[in-house]
Amino acid sequence: MTRQWLILAAAMAGMASGMASGDDCFLLTVAAKYGHSHDVEDLLSQGVDVDCGDGWTPLQFAVSEDHADTAEILLQHGAKVDVKPEDTGQTCLHWAAYDGYLEVAKVLIEHGASVDAKDDDGWAPLPHACVKGHVDVAELLISEGASVNLKDHDANVPLHWAAYYGEVPVVKLLFSHGAKVDATDNDGFTPLHDAAMSGFHLSTVKLLISHGADVNAKDSQGSTPLHWAAADGHLGTAKLLISHGADINLMDDHGWTPLHDACIDGRVEVAKALLSKGANVNVRDHDGKTPLDIAEMNGRFEMAKLLMSKGGMKLAQTNVTDVDKV
Prior knowledge:
Structural class: mainly alpha
Shape: elongated
Number of strands: 0
Strand content: under 5%
CATH class of the largest domain: Mainly Alpha
Radius of gyration: 27 Å
């Protein structure tokens, strides 16, 4: 490939601005980005700095485009494997994990990439693979020593992210390597909380419960997975949690039950499910408000109608004796 072609390719791709300074360095960066390993080899043999660049290095460009062979050549010539951009602190292995570039990940690890290096959010490569469901990359990372219970800056472990995004094969993989089912983050969320609030991954909820997840675990505000499912209107998740022993009348730190949570945004179908299983229609929170109070305060008139049909009353209508009779 000619130098003129490399320059033209860079211009067409909009790479000229903010790229490596120096003509030869610029050409090396272009060749790395497009995976032209022969040109990379030629330029390096001429003495071009393998880590040249004002922003990304040639290795970062090669990795970002899934060019494993080119990355191998750069690393053989001494490219820094764990180089990080200033804006994210992510290494090349973070990128490969997120994008599912298995062969690139193998090359990086073979050349000493840290499998537990943390980016600016405290994420190692493994959670990046987990959120995208790249089970093959996740398995590689774990086999090379990545910790399945390593916490990020918010104390999330990889299982939190796999559960939230409903990546069942990844969840199974993590469990097979000792992931803690009830690990808590800084907000007290367990993976089951995350799966419940995402609401669309019943198979993930079932899997977590089958591995012993506490259906009545409370977060830092005292909310259980059922509180979150009710608040977000996730009917299937709510029913599943109830069928596995979730306490429908358990209060959070404000005295709210899941029924209170269902009322705030008018989650009528969830409220019906809760009431059918014996939810207390007139339970009062720490301010004395009943579910009917919450429904009317938020203009949820269909919900209010449902509650009244089940004997629901407002604070002004209730007293301790009334509530005890419900």
